[in-house]
Amino acid sequence: MRLRGASLPDLLDLRAAEPFGDWTAVRVFGLSTDSRRVHPGDLFFGLPGGSREGARYALDALRRGAAAFVLPLGAAVPPRSCGIRHPDPFQALACAARRFYQDPGAQLEVVGVTGTNGKTTTALLTERLLSAGGKPQSLWSTTLVRLPSAAFRPQWTTPPAHELQRFLRAAADQGTQGVVMEVSSHGVVQQRIAGVHFAVGIATNFSPDHLDFHGTVEAYFDAKRAFIQGLGAGAAAILNADDPRVLAMGEGAEAEVFTYGEAPSADVRLSAVRPGDGVLEGALSLRGGRLGPEGDYPFRLPMAGRHNAYNAAAAFAAAVRLGVPAALAAQEIKTFEPPPRRLEREAVGPYVIYNDVAMNEASYDAVLGTLAEDVPGGLVVVHALRGNRGTLVNARIAEIFARWDRRLRFAPLIVSESRSDLGEDDVDRAVRPAERDAFVAAAARGGLRISLHVELDAAIEEAALRLSPGGTLLLLGTFGMDRGPAKAKAVLRRRLGLAAKEERDYLVPEDDAF
Length: 514
What we know:
Blueprint: H1 8-11, E1 18-20, E2 30-32, E3 42-45, H2 58-63, E4 68-72, E5 83-86, H3 89-100, E6 109-114, H4 119-132, E7 137-140, E8 145-147, E9 150-152, H5 161-173, E10 178-182, H6 185-189, E11 198-203, H7 211-214, H8 217-229, E12 236-240, H9 244-249, E13 256-261, E14 268-275, E15 280-286, E16 295-301, H10 307-321, H11 326-332, E17 344-348, E18 351-356, H12 361-373, E19 379-384, H13 391-408, E20 413-416, H14 433-445, E21 450-453, H15 456-466, E22 472-476, H16 484-495
Helix pairs in contact: 3-5, 4-10, 4-11, 12-13, 13-14, 15-16
């Protein structure tokens, strides 16, 4: 989607900028932050941060036809170029994107979902309930982007501002009434969501994560809190009543605060939760009359894991707030199609495979706790190390495994670096030696025996050899385990003499789809 040309004054507040070259006659026909994807006429933003300082690629962007540049203060300027140097290129990008795509968020009811865990499930549930209530939705989640015209797996939980505004423009143009999107802490700090008009903001829970980026737990908390605090006066903040850190995010917020959970004071009270064979049943009760008339609504969610009942409660609260009848919203929970790799369960002959895209210590704890309640036969676990996320998160995950080993007896825990399965993405997710060593050292301190493999294929093969008929194979980890379920099913089918079966590939690339 390439809109009419715009001038730099059309797109940017130039009062804090340092201009260079003659940009007065320049027209911009697109926005880009990646020099490899620059089209002639683009405005290129050299964003700071990480190992890829954007300003270093300005010359490459110029060769590819960039019309003008926004660079950090002090950055070198490409020869015979024009543009500005700006004290906050992220803020400049958010401003330019909103103006370039003509503020599409103002035409949509946008629901943002933040929190440490449960964002994807909550976002997909919310999209389902709103759509069932007659409000067609588009979606941006970690695992899936969906528009009427396209669906793909993205690289970003929350995309850069220009990609987000382009997506919102497409959603508005294609006739959806609203958008449900995940809001990451990176997305808040890097102003990817700046200028987006949110009708509802949901916060699921809070536990330490992304310390490689934020540095401290408090800085990570501040990013989550900033999203809730940034909601406007007409918006609703829907917060987990059973998580004190989440409740603290709403203190002093301009938005109207609603709560959900098992606490008696919750506006949406969660009760009588009963786990079954891959399902959860329970009741959602509207209390106090703030979200709607008081009433009790039974629900049935086709997912394992008690924590997913909280995700259902959050989605229910958002749907009711935006006008979906409570009885319909609760009834539609049973039609939900779970996202991939969220405690997925599949049988292959006498074997059961569970897999989950566990990302941090809290999610590992929740998954292992769920399986500890009822694991048929013996349990074999394969864990994919977390790449390019820092030593602390890997050490803490090892500590969680060591604690659960006292009850589940992994003997040993099978661990993979998944080197060959992490090489096809623009984002570098390779496991660093220090990350591997941090996991190994923490496992040793906790008395946890591990079997470490460089490749996921070898880890899966060992797991299959250790798995007895009637046993359960648990696959855990993010991108390094994405192809694990397909690999495990292929190995087990081969063992049973069954024909190979075409499996879904979780790594569906993003196209220029909208």
